[in-house]
Amino acid sequence: MCTWHRLIPKEQMDLLTYCRNLPKVELHAHLTGSLSDDTVLQLLEAKEKELGSKNSLCSAKITISKGHQRSLDECFRVFELLHSLTDSLEAIRKITQNVIQEFAEDGVRYLELRTTPKNILGKMTKKEYVDTVLEAMINEMKTCRIMVRLLVSVDRGRGVEDAWSTLSLAKQYLDHDVFKGLLVGIDVSGNPNKGNLADYIPILKEAKKCGFKLAVHLAEVKSCVEETDAVLQNGLVDRIGHGTYLLDNNGYGINNQDMILKHHIPIEICLSSNVKTESVSSFEDHHFPVWHALKHPLAVSTDDKGVFSTTLSNEYYICAKTFNLSEKDIHELCLHAVEATFLPSSDKDILRQMVKDDLSKLMGKLFLGRMTTNTLKPSTVLEICTPKELS
């Protein structure tokens, strides 16, 4: 039986502050795309020193300074810029540390970073790249209140041969003396208009045999209908990235919906990313409420928090405000994200308890009226369920 508390409106904190105080789980964060503007500017300055020209990257600085006002074209230019700035192991170490610190400061208790290993002649091998990311993760977990794990990314635009190479590299970390347990899965991403996911099915099957969990970007664009069906029919997906057109009204979405619901495949929800990239026209037209109404496991995520100038707190805020979520809804989202992690059961138990404890403390602050401004839902008195009853 759930224990309910009635709170009068004036005793509730404002929604954004509330979201910042939530113990959050981030499951869809690309490392390079998550760089804050401050970190990018630091990298730009370092690159200028390397090039010996103080103002050689002036136009790039202007684009970065626009922040959330960047146009879609400017966002894509930022992606290109980021890849050119992260061409040394020292840069990889720095960005990994900064990104983890920023997520921790935003109240993220668990982070799954995903990144495509780089092989740059004379500068780094794929293995050196992954080792550097993992070393930075370990160092940051010693000082930040956050658990971090890694997914190595298969870029569908680089071809099947490169994907096999990435999987071969990932296998080396399954029983690694230092890094064992930190690389928990494979991400399949990249330009959805390049390649065909069906060609990668043998690789995904091999990854599953090795024990890797799979997070796959699916149905990002309408043209991905057939490949999405093929991957889902093979039962290869542990989490779905985006899934924007899984529910397309051409009839295709009906079979997929039944399969996804039957197997409780979590969907990573990236609101700002989907609107900014114009895969959906507005927050109100997003597919989140359809799946939420079906009580399907969803993980609110950022995708590329730096490029799209957002935070996980902001994504929760947008979600709660747009779809009129209650505190119980928000808490359930936090806990569903815990269950969707690629952690082994023992680590997941620790994380689940951490999140529940933090939710209890947050409810205590609300109930005692220690943080008071506006109401979460201005015209109503909310019912708050104690976190221990939400599992």
UniProtKB/TrEMBL annotation:
One of its GO terms (molecular function) is metal ion binding. The keyword Disulfide bond does not apply. Gene3D superfamilies: Metal-dependent hydrolases. CDD domains: ADA_AMPD. It catalyses: N(6)-methyl-AMP + H2O + H(+) = IMP + methylamine. Residues 23-356 form the Adenosine deaminase domain. One of its GO terms (biological process) is nucleotide metabolic process. The keyword Zinc applies. Its cofactor is Zn(2+). Keywords: Hydrolase, Metal-binding, Nucleotide metabolism, Zinc. PANTHER family: ADENOSINE DEAMINASE, ADENOSINE DEAMINASE-LIKE PROTEIN. Belongs to the metallo-dependent hydrolases superfamily. Adenosine and AMP deaminases family. This is Adenosine deaminase domain-containing protein.
